[in-house]
Amino acid sequence: MSDARANILRRLRAAPAGLTQPYSDWSVLRDRDWSIDDQVGLFRTMAESVNARVIDCVAPEDASRPLPSWDSVLAEDCAARGVRRLAVSAPLAAPLQALWTGSPNRPEIILTADRDTLFSVDAGLTTARGGIAETGSLILWPGPTEPRMLSLVPPRHIALLRTSRLHPTLWHAMTENGWASQMPTNVVLVTGPSKTSDIEQTLVFGVHGPKDLLILLINDH
Amino acid sequence: MTTGPPPSAPVFRPLPTGPVTEVYLFGTCLVDLFTPSAGVSTVRLLQREGVRVIFPQGQSCCGQPAYNSGHPEEARTVARAQIPLFCKDIPIVIPSGSCGGMIRQHWPHLFAGQPEEAAARAIAARVWELSEFLVHVLKVSLEDHGTPETVTWHSSCHAMREMGLTDEPKRLLGQLKNVTVAPLQRERECCGFGGTFAVRHADVSAAMVADKCADIEGTGAATVLGGDCGCLMNISGALEHKGSAVGSQHLADYLWERTK
Amino acid sequence: MSHSSAPHDFRAGIDAGLHDTTLRANFRRAMDGLMTKRARQFEDPQEWTRLRALGQEIRQRALSKLPDLLERLEENCTRNGIRVHWAEDVAQANAIILEILQQRGITTVVKGKSMVSEEMHLNAFLGGHGIRALEADLGEYIIQLAGQMPCHIVMPAIHLNKTQIADLFADKLGTSPDGQDAEALTAIAREKLREEFRTAGAGISGVNFPVAETGTLCLIENEGNGRMVTTVPPVHIAVTGIEKVVENLEDVTPLLRLLTRSATGQPITTYVNMISGPRRGADQDGPQEVHLVLIDFGRSRVYADPETRQTLQCIRCAACMNHCPVYVRVGGHAYGGVYPGPIGKILTPQLNGLADYPDHPSASSLCNACVEVCPVKIPIAQMLVRLRNEKAGQGTGAVQDAGSGASRVEDAAWKAWAATYSTPLAYRVASAALTAAGNALPASAPLLKAWTSVRKKPRFAAQSLHRTLKEMGVADE
Ligand code: SF4
Q1: Residue spans of chain B under pLDDT 70
Q2: In a 3-state reduction of DSSP, which class is residue C186?
Q3: pLDDT exceeds 80 at position C23
Q4: Are C23 and C159 in contact (CB under 8 A)?
């Protein structure tokens, strides 16, 4: 096995120099002069084009805009879609519990990383670390407070995204936030619900991942 | 289904500086033996624009048949024999995108590291496909004397993808007021010629040319036009074999006949 | 790499593909759809030109430093807790994976899409050792049930229609064959596989972009099977070719854009996984172990020649096959091997030898449709010509089995051709003879026969262009 490593590297090192490109022009990715409003609009268009649902809302304490609070949008959507058991990421559990206490017909809030429980809940609620306007993608950054499976195995995924966390492109998100020096064990970009077109190129949503993706777009920019 | 225009930006070619009064004609081996009329029409179209045409009698072939068949040595032998015949610094006009592509794209590669490399590169830079030359360099304007007719156009792969032609032939046809061009459904798809491919993989090639013929017949055109004798030989051979009424012609012949 | 088996018979596969009208119709429709979707993504020629230049540069830059980047990748993966293994050939790679699984008593693995694992015939190998390997990508799952090879690298089951799939499911899974549409068939597969994800001992995946700078494995997919196999089971094993590594994390961004837009006409796939190790610290889930198996399988030989090295720039988008007039007519299975279409034509004979795949280099009209769309600008046609040279013994000998297709008869014919066409006098004599008497050649003459099966015999003109122009007084200088 160690021979394999040495042999491969030896063969590669023995090869003559080939084509190389010392310099690249990155402007095709870099140059984006979109205002935050442009980015919000583009994000929505792109996310909706792949069947994500995007609903504008605000934080519960924010009364500056005529938009509903995210927790009430969430409660309504859960009621409308029959979500009874909602698994949530840790930082959201306590606030949601507090907001919903005393209100009738709220789904059960479940705080767990247990695999089998997550396979059985109706929906998973996560935060998004950011969003990518150009493709309508969520940047998920699971870790100690948010299991990876929370956004993956329940049939519905609901994500909270702040408009102030939008980036024009993945390249901007990555370079402006210095990802390269702090990659967690898992970063996942999510663009719409799970889908396939493996059968006759017919688009079908909900293969192995969630069939439904709801983005609660918290307007805070 | 049409696959749309090429996604790459058109190749930009610097035009010759100053007026062009003299050109070489590289006739190509297929035109020489099978469709000499296309060569003659090329000469007439050029002469009508006041251009003096030189046809070095020592010429034969660009070397492509051997080059594409795994025999670069023989390709080089033949290509090398052409080099001294085209040494004046004037444009070389070719009634074929494929032979043009061979010289433009592949001669520099074929002669890399050889004594003739510089000469081969110089020639490559002076090569023009006929329609490209008529449109961009001579900027011809054509007067149609023919009767109303519908034709269709087959664009050769090498003209498009090696010479970087876009719509030059169709711009010329567009100048003929009595001619309607009915586009093919799959104008950009190969006709299945590919030199020895047509005999080595005869059944695949046959399926390709059968589809091409069906596409051509579906346009309702009386004639299919092309700029490459290889494609035309393949397509017309297949059309004739199936007893089709659609005729075929090289663009040079068609342009000359309608405008002379 | 052994020559024990007979060479792959491209023509036999072609026959099957060409004469199956259902297959041809399925393919045509599918490829038309993919071409249209891709074209919509690259409507701005400026952007396309600049983006693909960037993609090509990134791949060439990475290849130019390949051994260093592999060491850096290993170092950073190791720091992240990923265990890195190296394999020169299929046997070594399979043994590495078997050992990992056996040591942990694992008997079921779920797999994401991986072309490298197809090169390894991994499923059959593990099956032979009592380990069940289940494909989880829907297309691969269907193919596995059917006992076939993928016929397209992005859409493995594109040659089957829903009726065929419903019958297959009925036969293998006992579901009803009637009234099943794509949605219902997908739901059947979802149910079957969900339980497998939950209980499998290990997940096996490929990698689209291993990043040297951060020790990150990027994996893209639409279904969520990739997330499942790399998240749920306690062990994740990733396999990838040594050529795939890129230098910096940011290099992923243009390649990702080019890949998804070229492959399926999507601006991005549903999921882009960036995996940088097993669960760490207070992480709540994720595999306890992540392994990376770096495989060579002939790639270092392809790398040894600067021209053929360009083959390794490939990011496996399949655009070349989607646009290929030969592929669309013969189907993926004609190509044998793992990689069909233009990339298969240049890669398979280089990895496995020209003797085993003698027809691959010639099965192209050199129409350049692939070259026009390749997002990393691999000169595929130039590579095909190079392989033809190698096969005929006129290359540098860098490719395995160079010279295996050399033929004295062909060599002699080309020599005679060259002698005639390079000597004006000889050419004049020959062309005079052909124009005078060439048409007397019977349509059944060797070469001509293949031509005349569907075409009229070409007719020599009565007089050559040379003579005609001389008579017209055109200058000969
Ligand atoms: S050769 Fe180019 S077009 Fe073909 S799969 Fe590879 S990257 Fe895509």
Answers
A1: 1-12
A2: helix
A3: no
A4: yes
For residue A103, what pLDDT is reported? 86
pLDDT for B53: 98
Question: Which 323-382 residues of chain C touch chain A by CB within 8 A?
Answer: none
Q: Are C249 and A173 in contact (CB under 8 A)?
A: no
Cβ-based neighbour number of residue C213 at 10 Å:
18
- The percent of residues above 90 in pLDDT, for chain C, comes to 82
Contact B190 C325 (CB under 8 A): yes
Mutation target vs C (from A50, A151, A200; most C CBs, 10 A cutoff): A200
Give the per-residue pLDDT at C4. 44
Quick check: B44 and C82 in contact, CB under 8 A? no
Determine C/B contact with 3+ CB pairs under 8 A as the test: yes
Length of chain A: 221
A212: three-class secondary structure by DSSP: strand
Examine the predicted complex and report whether its ipTM is higher than 0.85: yes
Q: Of B47-51, C437-441, C468-472, where does mean pLDDT reach its minimum? A: C437-441
- pLDDT confidence tier of residue C15, bands split at 50, 70 and 90: low
* pLDDT tens digits, A56-101: 999 988 888 899 999 999 999 999 999 999 999 999 999 999 999 8
Strands (E), C212-359: 216-221, 235-241, 271-275, 289-295
Query: Which residues on C lie below 8 Å from A175 (Cβ)?
Result: 250
Q: Is C368 left (phi over 0), alpha (psi -120 to 50) or beta?
A: left
Sketch the domain layout of chain C as residue ranges: 1-41+318-406, 42-297, 411-472
Give all domains of chain A, ordered by start, each with its CATH number: 34-197+210-218 (3.40.50.10420)
Sorted by where each starts, the structural domains of chain B and their CATH numbers stand as 22-136 (no CATH), 142-259 (3.40.50.11810)
Task: Supply the residue whose CA is at minimum distance from atom 8 of ligand 1.
Answer: C317
A99 touches chain C (CB under 8 A): no
Q: Is the pLDDT of residue C56 over 60?
A: yes
Rounded Cα distance between C18 and C149, Å, is: 18
Report the alpha-carbon distance of residue A60 to residue A218 in Å, rounded.
10
> Can you give the pLDDT at residue C16?
67
Mutation to test the C interface, candidates B45, B57, B90, most C Cβ within 10 Å: B57
Interchain contact C183–A (C-beta under 8 A): yes
Q: What is the pLDDT of residues A17-64, one digit of tens each?
A: 888 877 899 999 999 999 999 999 999 999 999 999 999 999 988 888
- Whether the CB of C460 is below 8 Å from some CB of chain A: the reply is no
Angle at B9 between CA B4 and CA B10, to 5 degrees: 90
Point out the ligand 1 atom lying closest to the alpha carbon of residue C153: 5
3-state helix, strand, coil in chain A (%, to 5): 35, 25, 40
Name the residue type at position C104: R
Q: Using a CB-CB distance cutoff of 8 angstroms, which residues of chain B are in contact with residue C454?
A: 206, 209-210, 238, 241
Q: Which CATH superfamily is domain C42-297 in?
A: NagB/RpiA/CoA transferase-like (3.40.50.10420)
Contact A146, C284 (CB under 8 A): yes
CB-CB contact of C187 with A169 (8 Å)? no
Interface residue A51 vs chain C (CB under 8 A): no
Question: A153 and C294: CB-CB below 8 Å?
Answer: no
Hey, which residues does C210 pair with through a beta bridge? C217
User: Residues C343-346: contacts with CB within 8 Å, 24+ apart?
Assistant: C343/C153, C343/C311, C343/C314, C343/C316, C343/C318, C343/C370, C343/C378, C343/C380, C345/C380, C345/C384, C346/C311, C346/C378, C346/C380, C346/C383, C346/C384, C346/C387
Q: Which single residue is written with the structure tokens 């008497």?
A: C437
Instruction: List the structure tokens of B194.
Output: 């590919």
DSSP structure class, residue B15: P
**pLDDT score of C257 more than 60:** yes
